[in-house]
Amino acid sequence: MTEQKISGDVIAQENEKRAAAQAADYAALGDRLARNGVDIDTITTKVAEFAVAVPSWGVGTGGTRFARFPGAGEPRHIFDKLDDCSVIHQLTRATPTVSLHIPWDKADAKELKAKGDALGLGFDAMNSNTFSDAPGQAHSYKFGSLSHVDAATRAQAVEHNLECIEIGRALGSKALTVWIGDGSNFPGQSHFTRQFERYLASLAEIYKALPDDWRLFTEHKMYEPAFYSTVVQDWGTNYLIANTLGEKAYCLVDLGHHAPNTNIEMIVARLIQFGKLGGFHFNDSKYGDDDLDAGSVEPYRLFLVFNELVDAERRNAGGFHPAHMIDQSHNVTDPIESLISSANEIRRAYAQALLVDRSALDLYQDSNDALMATETLKRAYRTDVEPILAEARLRTGGAIDPVATYRASGYRARVASERPAIAGGSGGIV
Amino acid sequence: MTEQKISGDVIAQENEKRAAAQAADYAALGDRLARNGVDIDTITTKVAEFAVAVPSWGVGTGGTRFARFPGAGEPRHIFDKLDDCSVIHQLTRATPTVSLHIPWDKADAKELKAKGDALGLGFDAMNSNTFSDAPGQAHSYKFGSLSHVDAATRAQAVEHNLECIEIGRALGSKALTVWIGDGSNFPGQSHFTRQFERYLASLAEIYKALPDDWRLFTEHKMYEPAFYSTVVQDWGTNYLIANTLGEKAYCLVDLGHHAPNTNIEMIVARLIQFGKLGGFHFNDSKYGDDDLDAGSVEPYRLFLVFNELVDAERRNAGGFHPAHMIDQSHNVTDPIESLISSANEIRRAYAQALLVDRSALDLYQDSNDALMATETLKRAYRTDVEPILAEARLRTGGAIDPVATYRASGYRARVASERPAIAGGSGGIV
Amino acid sequence: MTEQKISGDVIAQENEKRAAAQAADYAALGDRLARNGVDIDTITTKVAEFAVAVPSWGVGTGGTRFARFPGAGEPRHIFDKLDDCSVIHQLTRATPTVSLHIPWDKADAKELKAKGDALGLGFDAMNSNTFSDAPGQAHSYKFGSLSHVDAATRAQAVEHNLECIEIGRALGSKALTVWIGDGSNFPGQSHFTRQFERYLASLAEIYKALPDDWRLFTEHKMYEPAFYSTVVQDWGTNYLIANTLGEKAYCLVDLGHHAPNTNIEMIVARLIQFGKLGGFHFNDSKYGDDDLDAGSVEPYRLFLVFNELVDAERRNAGGFHPAHMIDQSHNVTDPIESLISSANEIRRAYAQALLVDRSALDLYQDSNDALMATETLKRAYRTDVEPILAEARLRTGGAIDPVATYRASGYRARVASERPAIAGGSGGIV
Amino acid sequence: MTEQKISGDVIAQENEKRAAAQAADYAALGDRLARNGVDIDTITTKVAEFAVAVPSWGVGTGGTRFARFPGAGEPRHIFDKLDDCSVIHQLTRATPTVSLHIPWDKADAKELKAKGDALGLGFDAMNSNTFSDAPGQAHSYKFGSLSHVDAATRAQAVEHNLECIEIGRALGSKALTVWIGDGSNFPGQSHFTRQFERYLASLAEIYKALPDDWRLFTEHKMYEPAFYSTVVQDWGTNYLIANTLGEKAYCLVDLGHHAPNTNIEMIVARLIQFGKLGGFHFNDSKYGDDDLDAGSVEPYRLFLVFNELVDAERRNAGGFHPAHMIDQSHNVTDPIESLISSANEIRRAYAQALLVDRSALDLYQDSNDALMATETLKRAYRTDVEPILAEARLRTGGAIDPVATYRASGYRARVASERPAIAGGSGGIV
């Protein structure tokens, strides 16, 4: 029997208030889609099956190098975090798994597993951390980790990743995500080629230790925390890594890790074509790695990414089974609300992409009818699929309006009374 | 008698080693410049008079939201910081003033003044901080400070700025720099116009309290810590502020606070033309507000900025007396070395700009001879002015090679033995 | 009696096919909006009143410096262009005016006026052209026009603008739009300040000749055709111009003329606040001044711009009556179809912005409820307002589906048979 | 006996004027380098051996989509262009080869070869053109060429490339450069994967026809002329192409074809490491593909690229023998002067890179001494190597000051009297 952090009564009451409107909206949308030969329930079922992992670090208030402003009831440790994650899943039914970050979430694996089971949560990809120094660590990562000039430092970083795999095995995870901060702040600081050779050698050791049914995700990023060069700076380098390592190695795409103006959906298509798309860290960005809520700034871009994913699914593209994960920094919102909303936005983009009339699109593309091709995408995108998303939640026990229901539940006030307040403060690292 | 943190003997010894080469290089360059009608000593004198302020926060190791990796002998407080700043000035003779950040540098003003006097250091512009919460602060700046929707929060932020002015008066400072993090992370979070009206009203109160012989510098920045919109996002808004407030209000230009591809030297020219250039926060950047060492990534851009400054000087542009300050984050170097080197780079750009043959340039510009106009700039820029910079230091008691002399002095090891080691660690605010 | 380029029968037939679905969709949307207290007909009426000007040059196939690939039936001259423009208006009822470009559209003013009257088209802002040399022109604009170092060249450029005003007066236009290509390709080529002084002096002469009931729109652009610096490079410089000239001078915002990542809606808000928003050149862009179809790449950005406009309207912001114009380059579509579609997208953003619950938004903004504030915008944006747009067209005599109706009409084939084919070819100016 | 377009007397006279200064500067620099253990003559010899190809299209005045402003004496055809190219080589001794563009330079191959021989010029990589339609062409490239949906259009584009190879064989060329404009202007217009599959299939056909001793260079570009997506958009896709095709296929790097803020020198390093760097199209850019003169805007970036090249040379990196070509658009200068100056700038970056103390750099890199590592690069970069460049020219029969000598020669006036003037004019393709 799954432990419920939000009372079922609250959900029922809140749903009751909205049931009639939801039924009407769903019926109206169903009628309209039916006119175009689309069965709304088929879409709803697919949406209900679509899941995205929540990052454990996402339920705490994020910050910048300038400051962090905690909210009420900040989670104290991974067990609090799992409680918070379970709330998101309970209301959205979209986030059945949590992605852990080691050492931030380090705890007894058995206890973790038991907690997850109790809450009805599974464990997604494990994330290693060699971009900051853990207390007592023998070798500092100030000048790099997996690509460090010093062999002992690299060995320590490799070892940490192996430990992450071990923890993950105990928890039922099936993937390791490796993102590092290695790079340089000055021209000449690092020798690009020797640095990347060291990186590849370290990764090869990690890859060797990967269980057969696991996947290794490497994540590229243009800059930050390194500000002149970054070892895994773009998808080109990321592809070289995955290609060098072997068939269990895949590229992870974080939507905020690209150069300005980059056509991200095209990168997604290329990685699918060459069998190396591992999955996503969903979020949104306007300037850099802003880690804003998914779909909050450029919702059409999110749709265009999902357009590629649905297309690949339909084509049965080889080796295509991407992992979906959120990676955001919630600086000014209740993190639980942002994650509820983001899971919803991701499903929205998926639902819209499912509505694209792909036969018509094929014809327009093959006849160079650019206007009608793009209009075909736009028609799907313009559809207000909220009734479908709500229905998918409703039918699986979630909330028609999960944010309103969350607010009605008083969860935040409850945990705020249990968890000590944290003072804000300067990052001090301007 | 000024307190010397580096023994004069060390400087003398190190200079002695390099004296012959310096003399030869200076003579050779002097000959070459003379051939073009330029008197090297005139340039050297001007360079020796050129000063740039050091930021107190710059002598500590900086970091990112991901981590900070402290070095040995991190300064514990403003008095340690002033010691470090004095080393930079002793070796470069280019940084006679320090810019303080309140509350980070809060201390008894009399003690501060005495310490500065003892070290031969003055106090440059004061910097207020309403982008993070100080312990015990009544109202949080999570959702803004000078532009906050709540009047009490705005009043608190105004009050803090008034306090900065008071401290500055006691120290002999003549300017207040206001940079805020106010903005928003989501479309719709803030009403752009009402937010800016509140900002202007708060600034008007600060402006009213400004002593007659002070200047108010407002600093714009495109993004970070806010990631969808920033209240003072660019020079256009910054100009509106300065223009609205009055004649003591000026715009501060930080070289890393602009949109990608921005022509910064042109912004400098526009602000000069309209009498509103207050000064600079020097640094360099490749991606965003990277706060890299001045001139380390795009040295020609730094030169082009100084080309505008020297031109304005020559034209006696009205109201032109810009403040020069460094604002950098030293994440992977000894901050003292980076600041020595940066002060040097800034003087280098100034020296190169002084060498531009401006009569020739005028003629080329007026005859649309684009190639020779740009070549005129390049000829000045290509000149290796290091002998001039070294001579300017040497003649004023500094070091021919200040970084090597600093290393020879053993200063870092000495303070490392006096100041407790600090563990690195995760920013925890990813 | 207005001359109709598309037979009314075709429109009626095409509308008939779609009438039932349109009625159903409009009713369903009306029901849903009514539930939120919104009267759909009020929105429809406002949408029907919203007009946007079509650029005469937009009905010809555009190109790049690499090539241009003309389509069938390219307009030969302004009279053909007006025919094409009338088709757009006939089907959309959204584009009652045309914006002319001189000398491209030079013709006898009386004939032009008569042609416009016959087609039911008025004349919007006049556009001068001093970014290319007209045959037989005495002074070349190779090195600038209104800011040229040579007084005679500047005078010629001023004179051309005065002529544009004269033509416009005869046609009933009420505004002059000045966009120039002046700038430089090399650091040092131009003296920023002297160049801008010359520009301002030239503009002052044009401004002096402006009729009392006219407005002067100056348009900024970051780069292209100049690639190192541009005289009117951003809204900051544009504001300085408008502010220097006087109360009839306003800033024009082209959505594609900004630095990467720029928050354009915020610039719009600032210009409104300071009484200097003149209007828009609508289009979309992903990389630079791509001149793509409005709303085709970042539709949410277009909505956010309109969110500011509707907000200003509601606040009765002083001096707020922006001009709406399209400025696009149709390289791969039938230009008439792109303009039909773009007019529709612009009205779509307007309709969505009208649906924003502004009282709720105010409350969320004032309580720092970032999540619900942004959700309030999103709810309006997510509404599929196509039934409203179609209804607005239908009620004013336009087409429910204007592109399909245009295709059904055979207009393109008809003009292709009357207008000679043009060969494509290399721009030859790589 | 090579035909000389500039009289040897003029060169001798101009050199004579500058001989003493050059000797003095060369000696002084030699002394200084000797102090650091560097033999200046070794550097000079290497510089003298360094060559870069001139693009035939570069000697005509370039333009933008807005306008082109021809200069006096524009070359009428490839034979005029070769004359102009020979002037550049005669004065710089740095540009012994010319890169042709077909069909722009189409002519009888035997005549071409003879002309080249007479002028002492060889033929570098051949450039095909399927980004514009040639008169009489059966299938238009409006919607693509090598990746077009239509097989006949693709076949025509392949055929054109085969013809380029044939012409190149006759001329002694050893490489084909393929840059295409294929892409899309609207989301959905093209299916990314099918489009790229078609591209790869077309390239495979071209590759098959490549002579054994030839190389195939594919060139990526982020955008323009396509403004939503480009088939070969970045080095990641470019690498996939080269890797798929085979060992004669290489990636060409144009310095202006990248996203904003991209670290280009790192891409160069990656391509070298994976054996796929084919060569360069040198130029400079501030905003997009500005095609500005090499080193004119970011000279340090050019140096950093050459730093990688010299490092690879020293390491004997496998398969490393990059082609050096200029690709610029000379809109406001005499193209001959810009090409002279650019060849000089490219050699300058090479000379500076040769001066890097690589043993010291290795040590600094291996000890994480970021400050001294970057200073090691800067010291080399700061060296004013103009005396070396001038000496390299002088010793091989060129001019100490090639631009001044060119101006003294009266060449431009001479050809202006022989070649008819061309009127400027609007691109007409805004």
From TrEMBL, chains A, B, C, D:
The keyword Manganese applies. Keywords: Isomerase, Manganese, Metal-binding. One of its GO terms (molecular function) is isomerase activity. Gene3D superfamilies: Divalent-metal-dependent TIM barrel enzymes. The keyword Isomerase applies. It holds the Pfam family AP_endonuc_2. Residues 100-290 form the Xylose isomerase-like TIM barrel domain. It comes from the Bacteria. InterPro entries: L-rhamnose_isomerase, L_rhamnose_iso, Xyl_isomerase-like_sf, Xyl_isomerase-like_TIM-brl. SUPFAM superfamilies: Xylose isomerase-like (SSF51658). PANTHER family: L-RHAMNOSE ISOMERASE (PTHR30268). This is L-rhamnose catabolism isomerase.
